[in-house]
Write a structure and sequence with these properties.
transport, 7 helices, binds adenosine-5'-triphosphate, ABC_transporter-like_ATP-bd, alpha/beta, ATP-binding, ATP hydrolysis activity, Rossmann fold, 6-stranded mixed sheet, 3-stranded antiparallel sheet
Length: 242
């Protein structure tokens, strides 16, 4: 999906997003990093289709979006189970998967509690369960490292991999830069409403071809490695000629 020159502000307030242009492709995991108030949640809501930009366009939004807000709106009379069952019915999800997901995120014992009695982290789990009942094409996680307990945080990379394996994509907001080691990870830095893509792991490395006299190969390899470079391959020079 693509965002082109997206501008957002609340009422007549200052611009929160200023000309954001970016894309998320199938197989991508994008972490949006920026300080508190940088506009991360606003950007996630635009991507989710919950907030319409004042200017600019959002195109090719995937059909099925799972959105897990940082603060799940838990001030409701339902128990978690009743809420999830009702939501599943309205959306045509399989309510049978609620128990399975509750177990995966260590929520089974809290299913029959009223939503309003849940802590922030437990309420965020209700958000995660509803987002995953039918595997989303785009999973959006707002600050998952903040509210969720350590056990459930360990499930996040597993869930991300499942979404990717099914051809999906994932967008995560993360004010402390804790999102690491996820497959296909890209990072967007959001500052003063402007978005910049940080250089990814692949962009940090280049391959330099060097011809070395055969008699000096061992010495050259030692020299390169001692300088912290990685020697990828050694081959005859003729292989290189057209
Ligand atoms: N509904 C709203 N009405 C008015 N201003 C808002 C609203 N939501 C967010 N803002 C303002 O927009 C700016 C960006 O907020 P946003 O929540 O998108 O940032 P964030 O990077 O997600 O911050 P945090 O890490 O604290 O959640 C802030 O100045 C915030 O006060």
């Amino acid at each position: 999906m693509r965002l082109d020159d997206v501008w957002v502000r609340y009422g007549h307030g200052p611009w929160v997003l200023r000309g954001v242009t970016a894309g998320i492709d199938a197989g991508d995991v994008v972490a949006v990093v920026g300080r508190n108030g940088a506009g991360k949640s606003t950007l996630l809501q635009v991507v989710a289709g919950l907030l319409r930009p004042n200017k600019g366009t959002v195109t090719e939004r995937p059909a099925r979006i799972g959105y897990v807000p940082e603060r799940f709106p838990a001030d409701q009379a339902f128990t978690a189970r009743n809420y999830l069952v009702s939501l599943a019915r309205v959306r045509g999800d399989d309510p049978g998967r609620i128990a399975e997901w509750a177990e995966r995120v260590y929520f089974t014992g809290l299913l029959d509690r009223p939503l309003r009695e849940l802590s922030k982290g437990s309420a965020q789990k209700v958000g995660l369960i509803q987002a995953m009942l039918t595997r989303p094409d785009l999973l959006i996680l707002d600050e998952p490292w903040e509210g969720l307990d350590a056990q459930t945080r360990e499930q996040v990379p597993v869930i991300v991999e499942e979404v990717l394996a099914a051809g999906g994509r994932v967008l995560i907001s993360d004010h402390q830069g804790q999102t690491t080691d996820l497959p296909g990870l890209r990072r967007w830095d959001l500052s003063a409403g402007e978005l910049r893509e940080a250089a990814g792991a692949d962009d940090r490395w280049v391959v330099v071809e060097v011809a070395v006299e055969a008699s000096a190969v061992d010495q050259a390899v030692d020299t390169f490695e001692a300088a912290g470079h990685e020697v990828l391959k050694i081959r005859g020079r003729r292989e290189h000629q057209p």
